[in-house]
Design goal:
By secondary structure, the chain is mostly helical. The chain contains 18 helices and four strands.
Protein backbone atom coordinates (compact mmCIF):
# COMPACT_ATOMS: atom_id res chain seq x y z
CA UNK A 1 0.00 0.00 0.00
CA UNK A 2 1.99 3.01 -1.21
CA UNK A 3 -0.09 5.58 0.66
CA UNK A 4 0.38 3.80 4.00
CA UNK A 5 4.13 3.68 3.36
CA UNK A 6 4.19 7.39 2.52
CA UNK A 7 2.26 8.28 5.67
CA UNK A 8 4.64 6.21 7.79
CA UNK A 9 7.72 7.78 6.16
CA UNK A 10 6.53 11.37 6.16
CA UNK A 11 3.67 12.01 8.57
CA UNK A 12 5.28 10.57 11.71
CA UNK A 13 8.65 12.38 11.37
CA UNK A 14 6.91 15.61 10.42
CA UNK A 15 4.65 15.33 13.47
CA UNK A 16 7.67 14.81 15.73
CA UNK A 17 9.44 17.84 14.22
CA UNK A 18 6.29 19.93 14.53
CA UNK A 19 5.81 18.93 18.17
CA UNK A 20 9.42 19.84 18.94
CA UNK A 21 9.02 23.17 17.17
CA UNK A 22 5.89 23.98 19.19
CA UNK A 23 7.48 23.09 22.52
CA UNK A 24 10.73 24.92 21.79
CA UNK A 25 9.32 28.11 20.29
CA UNK A 26 5.97 28.33 22.15
CA UNK A 27 4.25 28.77 18.79
CA UNK A 28 0.65 30.06 18.77
CA UNK A 29 -1.88 27.29 18.19
CA UNK A 30 -3.31 28.88 15.04
CA UNK A 31 0.13 28.55 13.39
CA UNK A 32 0.43 24.94 14.55
CA UNK A 33 -2.87 24.07 12.86
CA UNK A 34 -1.89 25.98 9.70
CA UNK A 35 1.45 24.20 9.40
CA UNK A 36 -0.07 20.79 10.15
CA UNK A 37 -2.79 21.30 7.53
CA UNK A 38 -0.29 22.41 4.88
CA UNK A 39 2.18 19.59 5.57
CA UNK A 40 -0.46 16.85 5.34
CA UNK A 41 -2.43 18.19 2.39
CA UNK A 42 -0.32 16.56 -0.38
CA UNK A 43 -0.37 13.09 1.21
CA UNK A 44 -3.36 11.72 -0.67
CA UNK A 45 -4.75 8.66 -2.41
CA UNK A 46 -7.41 8.15 -5.09
CA UNK A 47 -9.81 5.24 -4.61
CA UNK A 48 -12.78 4.26 -6.78
CA UNK A 49 -15.95 3.23 -4.92
CA UNK A 50 -18.32 2.04 -7.60
CA UNK A 51 -18.65 4.88 -10.07
CA UNK A 52 -17.51 7.48 -7.53
CA UNK A 53 -13.85 8.41 -7.03
CA UNK A 54 -12.85 9.08 -3.44
CA UNK A 55 -9.75 11.26 -3.18
CA UNK A 56 -8.64 11.03 0.45
CA UNK A 57 -5.86 13.04 2.05
CA UNK A 58 -4.19 12.94 5.46
CA UNK A 59 -5.17 16.59 5.82
CA UNK A 60 -8.84 15.51 5.93
CA UNK A 61 -8.18 13.96 9.35
CA UNK A 62 -6.39 17.14 10.44
CA UNK A 63 -9.34 19.21 9.20
CA UNK A 64 -11.83 17.14 11.21
CA UNK A 65 -9.68 17.53 14.33
CA UNK A 66 -9.41 21.26 13.63
CA UNK A 67 -13.18 21.58 13.29
CA UNK A 68 -13.72 19.80 16.62
CA UNK A 69 -11.08 22.03 18.21
CA UNK A 70 -12.72 25.08 16.68
CA UNK A 71 -16.13 24.17 18.09
CA UNK A 72 -14.65 23.74 21.56
CA UNK A 73 -12.78 27.04 21.38
CA UNK A 74 -15.80 28.87 19.94
CA UNK A 75 -17.87 27.75 22.92
CA UNK A 76 -15.62 29.69 25.32
CA UNK A 77 -14.34 32.46 23.04
CA UNK A 78 -15.92 35.74 22.04
CA UNK A 79 -14.09 35.81 18.70
CA UNK A 80 -16.48 35.06 15.87
CA UNK A 81 -16.03 32.77 12.90
CA UNK A 82 -15.07 34.43 9.63
CA UNK A 83 -17.43 33.38 6.83
CA UNK A 84 -16.60 35.43 3.70
CA UNK A 85 -18.78 35.08 0.60
CA UNK A 86 -21.19 32.97 2.62
CA UNK A 87 -24.15 34.02 0.47
CA UNK A 88 -22.51 33.05 -2.81
CA UNK A 89 -21.09 29.79 -1.48
CA UNK A 90 -24.39 28.84 0.16
CA UNK A 91 -26.12 29.41 -3.18
CA UNK A 92 -23.50 27.29 -4.96
CA UNK A 93 -23.69 24.36 -2.55
CA UNK A 94 -27.47 24.62 -2.32
CA UNK A 95 -27.76 24.41 -6.09
CA UNK A 96 -25.33 21.47 -6.21
CA UNK A 97 -27.51 19.64 -3.66
CA UNK A 98 -30.67 20.45 -5.62
CA UNK A 99 -29.17 19.29 -8.92
CA UNK A 100 -28.03 16.11 -7.19
CA UNK A 101 -31.57 15.34 -6.00
CA UNK A 102 -32.93 15.92 -9.48
CA UNK A 103 -30.13 13.84 -11.00
CA UNK A 104 -30.68 10.93 -8.62
CA UNK A 105 -34.35 10.81 -9.58
CA UNK A 106 -33.70 10.97 -13.33
CA UNK A 107 -30.29 9.36 -13.88
CA UNK A 108 -29.19 7.76 -10.59
CA UNK A 109 -28.12 4.15 -10.19
CA UNK A 110 -29.74 3.55 -6.81
CA UNK A 111 -26.64 3.90 -4.61
CA UNK A 112 -27.99 6.96 -2.80
CA UNK A 113 -25.39 6.78 -0.01
CA UNK A 114 -22.64 7.41 -2.59
CA UNK A 115 -24.34 10.66 -3.59
CA UNK A 116 -24.58 11.75 0.04
CA UNK A 117 -20.85 11.08 0.48
CA UNK A 118 -20.11 12.98 -2.74
CA UNK A 119 -22.10 16.00 -1.52
CA UNK A 120 -20.49 15.96 1.93
CA UNK A 121 -17.07 15.74 0.31
CA UNK A 122 -17.86 18.73 -1.90
CA UNK A 123 -19.03 20.77 1.09
CA UNK A 124 -15.92 19.73 3.06
CA UNK A 125 -13.79 21.43 0.40
CA UNK A 126 -15.28 24.73 1.51
CA UNK A 127 -14.11 23.85 5.03
CA UNK A 128 -10.52 24.09 3.73
CA UNK A 129 -11.26 27.63 2.60
CA UNK A 130 -12.86 28.57 5.93
CA UNK A 131 -10.00 26.98 7.90
CA UNK A 132 -7.38 28.89 5.89
CA UNK A 133 -9.22 32.18 6.35
CA UNK A 134 -9.64 31.71 10.10
CA UNK A 135 -6.11 30.54 10.95
CA UNK A 136 -4.17 33.62 9.78
CA UNK A 137 -4.46 36.69 12.00
CA UNK A 138 -1.44 38.68 10.84
CA UNK A 139 1.11 38.99 8.07
CA UNK A 140 3.48 36.91 10.19
CA UNK A 141 0.89 34.11 10.20
CA UNK A 142 0.56 34.31 6.42
CA UNK A 143 4.34 34.16 6.07
CA UNK A 144 4.43 31.03 8.24
CA UNK A 145 1.83 29.36 6.00
CA UNK A 146 3.86 30.19 2.87
CA UNK A 147 7.07 28.88 4.43
CA UNK A 148 5.36 25.66 5.54
CA UNK A 149 3.99 25.24 2.02
CA UNK A 150 7.49 25.74 0.62
CA UNK A 151 8.89 23.02 2.90
CA UNK A 152 6.10 20.56 2.07
CA UNK A 153 6.16 21.18 -1.68
CA UNK A 154 9.97 20.93 -1.80
CA UNK A 155 9.91 17.54 -0.06
CA UNK A 156 7.07 16.26 -2.26
CA UNK A 157 8.73 17.54 -5.44
CA UNK A 158 12.02 15.95 -4.35
CA UNK A 159 10.31 12.59 -3.83
CA UNK A 160 8.79 12.81 -7.30
CA UNK A 161 12.11 13.72 -8.91
CA UNK A 162 14.03 11.02 -7.02
CA UNK A 163 11.43 8.40 -7.86
CA UNK A 164 11.46 9.38 -11.52
CA UNK A 165 15.27 9.30 -11.79
CA UNK A 166 15.47 5.92 -10.07
CA UNK A 167 12.74 4.59 -12.34
CA UNK A 168 14.43 5.70 -15.57
CA UNK A 169 18.06 5.13 -14.64
CA UNK A 170 17.89 2.04 -12.39
CA UNK A 171 14.53 0.56 -13.31
CA UNK A 172 13.34 0.69 -9.70
CA UNK A 173 9.64 1.06 -8.94
CA UNK A 174 8.72 3.44 -6.11
CA UNK A 175 5.42 4.74 -4.71
CA UNK A 176 6.22 8.22 -6.06
CA UNK A 177 6.01 7.22 -9.75
CA UNK A 178 3.14 5.78 -11.78
CA UNK A 179 4.31 4.24 -15.03
CA UNK A 180 6.85 6.73 -16.34
CA UNK A 181 5.21 9.76 -14.70
CA UNK A 182 6.22 11.28 -11.37
CA UNK A 183 3.32 11.53 -8.90
CA UNK A 184 5.05 12.44 -5.62
CA UNK A 185 2.71 11.57 -2.75
CA UNK A 186 -0.32 11.97 -5.00
CA UNK A 187 -1.78 8.93 -6.72
CA UNK A 188 -2.39 11.05 -9.80
CA UNK A 189 0.26 12.79 -11.94
CA UNK A 190 -2.11 15.57 -12.99
CA UNK A 191 -3.00 16.46 -9.38
CA UNK A 192 0.72 16.38 -8.61
CA UNK A 193 1.29 18.84 -11.46
CA UNK A 194 -1.48 21.14 -10.22
CA UNK A 195 0.05 21.13 -6.74
CA UNK A 196 3.49 21.99 -8.17
CA UNK A 197 2.18 24.88 -10.29
CA UNK A 198 0.40 26.31 -7.27
CA UNK A 199 3.51 25.79 -5.12
CA UNK A 200 5.73 27.57 -7.64
CA UNK A 201 3.73 30.80 -7.46
CA UNK A 202 3.31 30.63 -3.67
CA UNK A 203 7.09 30.27 -3.46
CA UNK A 204 7.43 33.31 -5.69
CA UNK A 205 5.15 35.24 -3.32
CA UNK A 206 7.39 34.19 -0.44
CA UNK A 207 10.42 35.34 -2.44
CA UNK A 208 8.87 38.78 -2.73
CA UNK A 209 7.89 38.88 0.96
CA UNK A 210 10.09 41.23 2.97
CA UNK A 211 10.63 38.46 5.53
CA UNK A 212 12.65 36.57 2.91
CA UNK A 213 15.09 39.40 2.33
CA UNK A 214 18.40 37.67 3.05
CA UNK A 215 20.43 36.25 0.19
CA UNK A 216 20.55 32.80 1.83
CA UNK A 217 16.75 32.68 2.24
CA UNK A 218 16.19 33.74 -1.35
CA UNK A 219 18.65 31.16 -2.65
CA UNK A 220 16.73 28.47 -0.76
CA UNK A 221 13.44 29.62 -2.26
CA UNK A 222 14.86 29.83 -5.79
CA UNK A 223 16.34 26.33 -5.47
CA UNK A 224 12.97 25.00 -4.30
CA UNK A 225 11.23 26.65 -7.26
CA UNK A 226 13.70 25.02 -9.67
CA UNK A 227 13.03 21.62 -8.09
CA UNK A 228 9.27 22.20 -8.39
CA UNK A 229 9.56 22.98 -12.11
CA UNK A 230 11.72 19.89 -12.69
CA UNK A 231 9.17 17.71 -10.89
CA UNK A 232 6.40 19.34 -12.96
CA UNK A 233 8.16 18.34 -16.19
CA UNK A 234 8.75 14.79 -14.92
CA UNK A 235 5.05 14.48 -14.08
CA UNK A 236 4.46 14.35 -17.84
CA UNK A 237 1.31 16.44 -17.41
CA UNK A 238 0.82 18.26 -20.69
CA UNK A 239 -2.00 20.35 -19.28
CA UNK A 240 -0.03 21.13 -16.13
CA UNK A 241 3.12 22.23 -17.97
CA UNK A 242 1.12 24.28 -20.49
CA UNK A 243 -0.90 25.95 -17.71
CA UNK A 244 2.27 26.79 -15.76
CA UNK A 245 3.98 28.30 -18.80
CA UNK A 246 0.85 30.33 -19.57
CA UNK A 247 0.62 31.53 -15.98
CA UNK A 248 4.29 32.54 -15.90
CA UNK A 249 3.65 34.61 -19.04
CA UNK A 250 0.58 36.19 -17.41
CA UNK A 251 2.60 36.93 -14.29
CA UNK A 252 5.30 38.57 -16.39
CA UNK A 253 2.72 40.83 -18.03
CA UNK A 254 0.75 41.86 -14.92
CA UNK A 255 3.78 42.22 -12.64
CA UNK A 256 4.67 45.55 -14.24
CA UNK A 257 8.30 44.91 -13.36
CA UNK A 258 11.03 44.84 -15.99
CA UNK A 259 13.33 43.00 -13.56
CA UNK A 260 10.75 40.27 -13.00
CA UNK A 261 10.25 39.84 -16.74
CA UNK A 262 14.01 39.71 -17.31
CA UNK A 263 14.36 37.12 -14.53
CA UNK A 264 11.60 34.97 -16.06
CA UNK A 265 13.21 35.16 -19.51
CA UNK A 266 16.60 34.34 -17.98
CA UNK A 267 15.09 31.33 -16.16
CA UNK A 268 13.57 30.05 -19.41
CA UNK A 269 16.87 30.49 -21.28
CA UNK A 270 18.78 28.73 -18.49
CA UNK A 271 16.40 25.79 -18.76
CA UNK A 272 16.92 25.61 -22.51
CA UNK A 273 20.71 25.73 -22.07
CA UNK A 274 20.66 22.96 -19.43
CA UNK A 275 18.46 20.69 -21.56
CA UNK A 276 20.52 21.43 -24.66
CA UNK A 277 23.76 20.68 -22.83
CA UNK A 278 22.41 17.37 -21.59
CA UNK A 279 21.26 16.47 -25.08
CA UNK A 280 24.72 17.12 -26.52
CA UNK A 281 26.90 15.64 -23.77
CA UNK A 282 24.72 12.87 -22.34
CA UNK A 283 22.47 11.54 -25.07
CA UNK A 284 22.09 8.30 -23.12
CA UNK A 285 20.53 10.15 -20.17
CA UNK A 286 18.09 11.98 -22.45
CA UNK A 287 17.13 8.69 -24.11
CA UNK A 288 16.14 7.24 -20.75
CA UNK A 289 13.66 10.06 -20.22
CA UNK A 290 12.29 9.81 -23.76
CA UNK A 291 8.80 8.62 -22.64
CA UNK A 292 8.25 11.83 -20.68
CA UNK A 293 9.72 13.96 -23.48
CA UNK A 294 7.51 12.27 -26.07
CA UNK A 295 4.42 12.74 -23.92
CA UNK A 296 5.05 16.46 -23.42
CA UNK A 297 5.91 16.90 -27.11
CA UNK A 298 2.55 15.36 -28.05
CA UNK A 299 0.73 18.32 -26.47
CA UNK A 300 0.59 19.98 -29.91
CA UNK A 301 -0.56 16.80 -31.65
CA UNK A 302 -4.33 17.17 -31.81
CA UNK A 303 -4.66 13.67 -33.27
CA UNK A 304 -2.99 12.06 -30.25
CA UNK A 305 -5.21 9.18 -28.96
CA UNK A 306 -5.46 10.66 -25.45
CA UNK A 307 -6.51 13.99 -26.94
CA UNK A 308 -9.16 12.31 -29.06
CA UNK A 309 -10.48 10.55 -25.98
CA UNK A 310 -10.82 13.85 -24.14
CA UNK A 311 -12.58 15.42 -27.11
CA UNK A 312 -15.14 12.61 -26.90
CA UNK A 313 -15.56 13.15 -23.15
CA UNK A 314 -16.04 16.89 -23.67
CA UNK A 315 -18.61 16.22 -26.40
CA UNK A 316 -20.39 13.86 -24.02
CA UNK A 317 -20.40 16.53 -21.31
CA UNK A 318 -22.02 18.99 -23.72
CA UNK A 319 -24.56 16.33 -24.70
CA UNK A 320 -25.44 15.79 -21.02
CA UNK A 321 -25.84 19.55 -20.61
CA UNK A 322 -28.17 19.75 -23.61
CA UNK A 323 -30.24 16.96 -22.07
CA UNK A 324 -30.68 18.91 -18.82
CA UNK A 325 -29.47 22.50 -19.30
CA UNK A 326 -30.86 24.00 -16.08
CA UNK A 327 -30.04 21.51 -13.34
CA UNK A 328 -27.61 19.25 -15.21
CA UNK A 329 -27.59 15.49 -14.71
CA UNK A 330 -26.66 15.82 -11.02
CA UNK A 331 -23.47 16.17 -9.04
CA UNK A 332 -21.42 12.97 -9.26
CA UNK A 333 -23.54 11.52 -12.07
CA UNK A 334 -21.19 12.00 -15.02
CA UNK A 335 -19.42 8.66 -14.60
CA UNK A 336 -22.69 6.93 -13.64
CA UNK A 337 -24.53 8.01 -16.79
CA UNK A 338 -21.46 7.51 -18.98
CA UNK A 339 -21.13 3.90 -17.79
CA UNK A 340 -24.86 3.29 -18.29
CA UNK A 341 -24.82 4.56 -21.86
CA UNK A 342 -21.34 3.75 -23.18
CA UNK A 343 -19.77 1.31 -20.73
CA UNK A 344 -16.84 3.75 -20.32
CA UNK A 345 -15.82 4.87 -16.83
CA UNK A 346 -14.23 8.32 -17.00
CA UNK A 347 -14.46 11.78 -15.50
CA UNK A 348 -15.03 14.75 -17.86
CA UNK A 349 -11.34 15.84 -17.78
CA UNK A 350 -12.53 19.44 -17.87
CA UNK A 351 -13.53 21.29 -14.70
CA UNK A 352 -15.90 23.73 -16.35
CA UNK A 353 -17.60 21.30 -18.74
CA UNK A 354 -17.93 18.82 -15.89
CA UNK A 355 -19.68 21.41 -13.70
CA UNK A 356 -21.85 22.43 -16.65
CA UNK A 357 -22.88 18.83 -17.34
CA UNK A 358 -23.56 17.91 -13.70
CA UNK A 359 -25.06 21.13 -12.29
CA UNK A 360 -26.28 22.93 -15.41
CA UNK A 361 -25.81 26.53 -16.49
CA UNK A 362 -26.79 27.90 -13.07
CA UNK A 363 -24.17 25.81 -11.31
CA UNK A 364 -21.43 26.89 -13.73
CA UNK A 365 -22.35 30.58 -13.40
CA UNK A 366 -22.27 30.36 -9.59
CA UNK A 367 -18.85 28.67 -9.72
CA UNK A 368 -17.49 31.24 -12.17
CA UNK A 369 -18.94 34.00 -10.00
CA UNK A 370 -16.99 32.64 -7.04
CA UNK A 371 -13.77 32.61 -9.07
CA UNK A 372 -14.38 36.13 -10.36
CA UNK A 373 -14.93 37.38 -6.80
CA UNK A 374 -11.34 36.51 -5.90
CA UNK A 375 -9.99 38.02 -9.10
CA UNK A 376 -11.78 41.24 -8.13
CA UNK A 377 -10.08 41.16 -4.72
CA UNK A 378 -6.62 41.01 -6.32
CA UNK A 379 -7.04 43.27 -9.35
CA UNK A 380 -6.94 46.69 -7.56
CA UNK A 381 -3.69 45.79 -5.80
CA UNK A 382 -2.08 44.73 -9.08
CA UNK A 383 -3.08 47.64 -11.27
CA UNK A 384 -3.05 50.56 -8.80
CA UNK A 385 0.55 49.70 -7.85
CA UNK A 386 0.55 51.95 -4.78
CA UNK A 387 2.97 49.54 -3.13
CA UNK A 388 5.31 47.44 -5.29
CA UNK A 389 5.59 44.51 -2.87
CA UNK A 390 1.84 44.31 -2.44
CA UNK A 391 1.29 44.44 -6.21
CA UNK A 392 3.81 41.67 -6.92
CA UNK A 393 2.42 39.37 -4.24
CA UNK A 394 -1.10 39.92 -5.60
CA UNK A 395 0.21 39.13 -9.09
CA UNK A 396 1.69 35.86 -7.78
CA UNK A 397 -1.64 34.83 -6.24
CA UNK A 398 -3.53 35.71 -9.41
CA UNK A 399 -1.04 33.77 -11.53
CA UNK A 400 -1.56 30.76 -9.24
CA UNK A 401 -5.32 31.06 -9.74
CA UNK A 402 -4.81 31.30 -13.51
CA UNK A 403 -2.63 28.17 -13.41
CA UNK A 404 -5.35 26.18 -11.65
CA UNK A 405 -8.07 27.50 -13.96
CA UNK A 406 -6.00 26.83 -17.09
CA UNK A 407 -5.18 23.27 -16.08
CA UNK A 408 -8.85 22.88 -15.20
CA UNK A 409 -9.54 23.03 -18.95
CA UNK A 410 -7.94 19.58 -19.34
CA UNK A 411 -8.65 17.85 -16.00
CA UNK A 412 -11.27 18.08 -13.24
CA UNK A 413 -9.87 20.26 -10.44
CA UNK A 414 -12.93 21.51 -8.55
CA UNK A 415 -12.20 18.83 -5.91
CA UNK A 416 -8.52 19.79 -5.61
CA UNK A 417 -7.96 20.84 -1.98
CA UNK A 418 -5.09 23.14 -2.93
CA UNK A 419 -7.49 25.24 -5.01
CA UNK A 420 -9.71 25.94 -1.99
CA UNK A 421 -6.70 26.68 0.21
CA UNK A 422 -5.50 29.14 -2.45
CA UNK A 423 -8.87 30.94 -2.31
CA UNK A 424 -8.42 31.20 1.46
CA UNK A 425 -4.93 32.63 1.07
CA UNK A 426 -6.21 35.20 -1.41
CA UNK A 427 -8.86 36.34 1.04
CA UNK A 428 -6.34 36.49 3.89
CA UNK A 429 -4.05 38.59 1.69
CA UNK A 430 -7.03 40.85 0.88
CA UNK A 431 -7.57 41.50 4.61
CA UNK A 432 -3.94 41.83 5.66
CA UNK A 433 -2.84 44.01 2.73
CA UNK A 434 -5.51 46.70 2.30
CA UNK A 435 -5.46 48.44 -1.06
CA UNK A 436 -2.79 51.13 -1.03
CA UNK A 437 -1.34 50.18 2.37
CA UNK A 438 2.39 50.42 2.95
CA UNK A 439 4.48 47.50 4.27
CA UNK A 440 4.57 49.04 7.76
CA UNK A 441 0.80 49.45 7.94
CA UNK A 442 -1.34 46.74 9.53
CA UNK A 443 1.64 44.43 9.34
CA UNK A 444 1.25 42.56 12.58
CA UNK A 445 -1.90 44.15 13.92
CA UNK A 446 -4.33 41.88 15.71
CA UNK A 447 -7.34 41.54 13.43
CA UNK A 448 -9.50 39.63 15.88
CA UNK A 449 -11.84 42.59 16.27
CA UNK A 450 -12.02 43.21 12.51
CA UNK A 451 -12.74 39.51 12.05
CA UNK A 452 -15.54 39.24 14.54
CA UNK A 453 -18.72 37.74 13.15
CA UNK A 454 -20.43 41.09 12.92
CA UNK A 455 -17.51 42.78 11.12
CA UNK A 456 -17.15 39.86 8.76
CA UNK A 457 -20.79 40.07 7.87
CA UNK A 458 -20.40 43.76 7.02
CA UNK A 459 -17.19 43.17 5.07
CA UNK A 460 -18.56 40.05 3.36
CA UNK A 461 -21.57 41.96 2.07
CA UNK A 462 -19.29 44.67 0.77
CA UNK A 463 -17.06 42.17 -1.00
CA UNK A 464 -19.94 40.46 -2.70
CA UNK A 465 -21.27 43.75 -3.93
CA UNK A 466 -18.05 44.72 -5.67
Amino acid sequence: MPTVVVIALLAIPLSIVLAGWVLYRSVPLNRVWSVLLVLTLPISSVTDVGAVSANLALSDAVLVALMVYGLVVASVSKQGLRLPFIGLTAALFGWVAFSMLVGINRFGDGADWLYVISLLKYISLFAYFIATVNLSHSRDDLSVVLRAWLVASTVIAGLGVAGSFLHFTAGQSLPFVEGHRATGTFDDANLFAAYLSLSFFLAFALLIDAKTATIRARMVVVSAMALQLLALVLSGSRGGVTACVLSIAVFGVISGSGRIRLALVGTALAGVVVVGSLAVSSQGVIDKFQPVINRLASASDFDDPSHLQRYRLWSQALAFFERSPVTGIGRGNFKVVLIQETGIQHIPHNTFLGILAETGLVGLLLFLGLLLSFVVLLAPRIFQRVDRTQALMAACLLAALVAIAAQGLTISLENFRGFWVLLGLIYVFHLLYPVGSRPSEAGSADLSRAWSLRAVGERGNGDQGR
